[in-house]
Amino acid sequence: MTNLQENTTSHQIRIIKEYPADSVAVPLAMRAWMRSNHAGETGAVWIYRGALLALWSPKIRRMAKNHIQSEKRHLVVMDQLVPVESRCRLLMIWKILGAGLGFLSTLFGYKTFCSTISAVESFVEEHYNEQIEFLNDHEGYSDLQLVLKRCCAEEVHHRNDAESGLSGQRGILDKIWVSLVENGSVAAVSIAKII
Ligand SMILES: [Fe+2]
Ligand SMILES: [Fe+2]
């Protein structure tokens, strides 16, 4: 059972209670998954931080500003659910890569940014759904399942928001870029589960 940590601020406590992620039990079998969730939410915050540097594009900045709010909340929730000693040891790398990906995608314009966000958020949705399904077969963890469902629903909202910025046929370069982002996400999660 994860009790509220001592140094949690009142703002963070409000978020934790809202999801609700206080007093949630995490099964041992979910440890690697939870570590990758924590690493993923860290990366997500930094993707949008990178995108916020696109001062030339109000549309990109508007989406990034909007999405980063829920990513920050997800990170507060994962901070609560994943004790410091079991967190991924490569968090600094995910921050740098996340910010790099977020910023780089903005250099190619709004559509490429939307493609990137759609690819990342679709991947995250799948990642959370795997865990939600796993918990269907494990009694006693409905509290954790509820938290993951809420986070997942917000990722779906991010994906839909990004997809609303896409139109027409996707070019070959766009397809290559999306496949790179997808493979990179798969690799990042696999690494974060181990280290
Ligand atoms: Fe998130
Ligand atoms: Fe998201």
Strand-helix topology:
Elements: H1 10-18, H2 31-51, H3 58-81, H4 91-107, H5 110-136, H6 142-163, H7 172-194
The structure holds fe (ii) ion (FE2) (2 copies).
When the domains are counted, the total is 1
Q: Provide the list of bound ligands, each named once.
A: fe (ii) ion
Basic shape: globular
Structural class: mainly alpha
Write a structural description.
It is a single chain. With 195 residues, this protein is mostly helical. It has a single domain, classed as Ferritin (Up-down Bundle). Helices cover 73% and strands 0% of the residues. It is built from seven helices and no strands. It has helices spanning 10-18, 31-51, 58-81, 91-107, 110-136, 142-163, 172-194. Helix 2 (31-51) packs parallel to helix 4 and helix 2 packs across helix 7 (172-194). The radius of gyration is 17 Å and the shape is globular. It starts with 9 loop residues before the first helix and ends with a helix. The mean pLDDT is 93. One fe (ii) ion binds next to helix 3, helix 5 and helix 6.
What features would you highlight for this structure?
mainly alpha, Ferritin, 7 helices, binds fe (ii) ion
Brief overview:
By secondary structure, this protein is mainly alpha-helical.
